[in-house]
Amino acid sequence: MKTLVIVDDEPSVLNGLRSYVDWEGQGIELIGTADDGDAGLEMIKALKPDIVLTDVQMPAMDGIRMAAEVRAVLPFTKIVFISGHNDAEYLRSALQIHAVDYLLKPIRRKELASVMGKVTGALDAEARERSRVKEMQAKLAQSLPLLRERFLLSVISDRIHPAHIREKLEFLDLTLLSASDYIVIVIMIDDVPQVLDTRSEQDKQLLSYTVLNIIQELIDKQMRGITFEKQPGEYVGILLTRQLEDGDAEGAEEVQSPEQELLLLAESIRDNLRQWLKLSVTIGVGEGVSSLPELPLSYKQARGAADQKWYLGKNRILSMDKLESAEHLRYRYEAEWSERVLTALRSGDRERTLSELEQIFARLEQNRGQGSRYAQNVSLHLILQSGQVMLELNGMSEEREQKEMEAWKQVMRQETIQDLLQYTAAYLQEVCDYSRLKRSGKASEVIERVRLLIGQRYSENLSAADIAEGVYLSPTYVRLLFKQETGETLFEYLTKVRIEQAKNLLKDPQNKLYEVCYAVGYTDPSHFSKLFKKITGCTPSAYREQLK
User: Which residues does the record list as 4-aspartylphosphate (modified residue) (predicted)?
Assistant: First the structure.
């Protein structure tokens, strides 16, 4: 309901408006009346009504002057004037102070209702608009972190427009970046796929929030600047390097240089993330620049330094002075390297395979100008080549094809050249194991060892990994060999052995069905019963009945 104050020096008009108008029916509450401008102004200031209905001509303070004062303190209050037919000049002045409407004396109820309807409608429209603006302002406030992040991304990505940059910094509450002399650091989580892939989306967001908080707190404590997440696992810090004031010259030798401050900050970030979040990080440091438009250069240098973990290893603080310039490849992959690895794979020689790989990667490590891509391509080529050996040995099963496809993904996820060497070596040595067994004719010997192990341990919760460990091979090749040599999978053979043992146990009526289930390695009697029926054609209880 809207509120109304009426001001008129004529008692008959004031009494008529107060007593004979159904204000409540129009959605209006009459909260006060006054008979002159001075009293009316004081009342309006105190009650803050939505609508003021006032006479134009009044002694002392007239309606025009009163309305102007009301407008100054209550800009949203709507003012409607009451005017006589001879008050044309007054009315013109009234309309100049943005009165919403006027009524001529004598006042007619129908006209009064029409004017008040327009006034209340205008008040409702303005209230909705203010609500919408307030809502938009709230949403804008909520969006400020995202807007800051977008702006900071544009700053380091060479997309910043110098026009109105100070206004943008003020709007985004980033005025600390109005200074000069900046330097960029890049903090990259090591082994980011392993760190993030095992987490839920909520946990990823929580980790990101925590990492940013730790980095920002350390920046605030030791230097000045701001940090943000560029992409999952990569955080960027824009730091302000301190400059000595003229009055600080005395004792300046005790003040740490920007380089020393930066090194201490980077060490603090690395150590705190390790201590509190068990995260290993590599930190790249760019060179100092003197303006925001130059920040992309410092970022590029910092990211380039961090990328050198491919050669120098993880959990390091790397700066531009650690980079080696190399415009061209020192070593290109030669066909003879492939031939030597192929020979080692075909002969099943693990040591020779590893030796050849180490020599190849030692050469690739010299190609620092090319980054990781060249070495990854070499690794993919070697893995593809090992598939040729498997085809020659008739060992390219569906499972092996899936493993090869997964290897292509894993190669691209390795973060250092040593990680890539270890992964590639482990993959190729599995091929060596298979090749050696097939060519030595000892595959049947391995199969017998597998059968013996299953016969001894069928009552355990055996996995392919357990069986492989028992015969000193990888799970992949144990499964592959067994399938090729026997025509059935490890799981099928293990199930067959267990069911045969269960048949023997069922011959003794003293053995309860659930005891038989547990004795042959199953923990779920219902599952055991289904497997038993699938293989024998009847349930364990029906099988026992047949024996009577």
Answer: 55
- Predicted TM-score (pTM) of the model is 0.62
* Residue 325 and residue 315 in contact, taking contact as beta carbons nearer than 8 Å: no
CA 115 – CA 100 distance, rounded (Å): 9
185, 262 contact by CB (below 8 A): yes
pLDDT digits (tens, 9 = 90+) for 351-379: 999 999 999 998 888 876 666 888 899 99
- Per-residue pLDDT tens over the stretch 246-283: 444 444 445 567 778 899 999 999 999 999 999 999 99
Strand partners, 103: 82
Structure tokens at 280: 């290993």
Q: Residues 6 or more apart from 345 whose CB is under 8 A from it? A: 353, 385, 386, 389, 428, 431, 432, 435
pLDDT tens-digit series, residues 57-79? 888 898 889 999 999 999 999 99
Provide the residue type at 388 as one letter: Q
What are the angstrom distances between the C-alpha of 509 and each of 34, 529, 540, 543, 547? 107, 17, 12, 12, 10
Contacts of 274 (CB under 8 A, 6+ apart): 280, 281, 315
For 168, phi then psi, to 5°, come to -65, -45
